[in-house]
Amino acid sequence: MYRFLLSRQWVILTLIALLLIPTMIELGFWQMHRYEERTARNDLVAEALDADPVPVERLTSPGKRITSAERYRSVTATGRFDTAGEVVVRRRTNADDEVGYHVLTPFVLDDGKVLLVNRGWIPADGPSQTEYPEVPAPPSGEVTVTGRMMPDETTEASGIKNLKGLPDRQVMLIDSAREAERLDASVLGGYIVLTTPEPKDGTPELIGRPGDEDAALNFAYAIQWWLFSAAVPVGWWFLVRREARDRAGATDTADDAAEAEPAAV
Residue 55 gets which letter from DSSP? Predict the structure, then answer.
């Protein structure tokens, strides 16, 4: 009754089913790993954002690499903004996905070290983006700032190419080592995203808090892949039974037709 399973068509179909089952199971485990990674990352970010602010030099120093545990930690610093060394970071978007710049201003601490402060987003003046844009001035004199600690940007992490030959005072990535060379100063590793004081007239536009990654979606995908893997053998058996039933029905019809033919005289 099931000799048709040895046909070329059914052998290929069975092999495909046998290949799909472990593949889908493995994809489910991959999505579950992604869920666990994203959940752990969300917990780490939430913990950093909720922690009390600490002096910036407690977390960083010249040449230091900011770790994932230090990322988003709230820090404070007292000093003055140095607009003469200010640059803008190209091709950055705001919450409405409008393309513009981030304003990166050196902040000179009381001990002479420099902290890079991302003061927020401003729109591009025109399509060419070759001229230095009009940037609102930061508070003058000594001021205390608060911000979220961030690691230096890299092409590998951000996907942004570090282009050369850019217009004066424009950069693609925030790199404390490169800024230390440009400013000829002792620059603390990483940079901060400004949270206070808030800018006058709302510009530069402060960068919002990072949101949670959608870990639940990966969990749902994992369950989905495992359900698919379970459905494959069920679907295969359904097709086999239907094929067997169709073949049996065709055989019965042929037998009935043979019996109905008149006998030869």
Answer: E
15-19, 41-45, 165-169, 177-181, range with the lowest pLDDT? 41-45
Locate 98 and state its tokens. 């409008």
Q: CA distances (Å), 97 to each of 91, 134, 194, 206, in order?
A: 11, 20, 20, 14
Q: How confident is the model at residue 265 (pLDDT cuts 50, 70, 90)?
A: very low
Amino acid identity of residue 171, one-letter, is V
Q: How far apart are CA 132 and CA 128, in angstroms?
A: 11
Say how far apart CA 16 and CA 14 lie, in whole Å. Answer: 5
Query: At residue 94, what is the residue type?
Result: N
Task: Tell me the Ramachandran region of residue 72: left when phi exceeds 0, alpha when psi lies from -120 to 50, beta otherwise.
Answer: left
- Residue 250: CB partners within 8 Å, gap ≥ 6? none
pTM score of the predicted model: 0.72
Cα first-last separation, the chain: 35
Question: Does 58 have pLDDT greater than 50?
Answer: yes
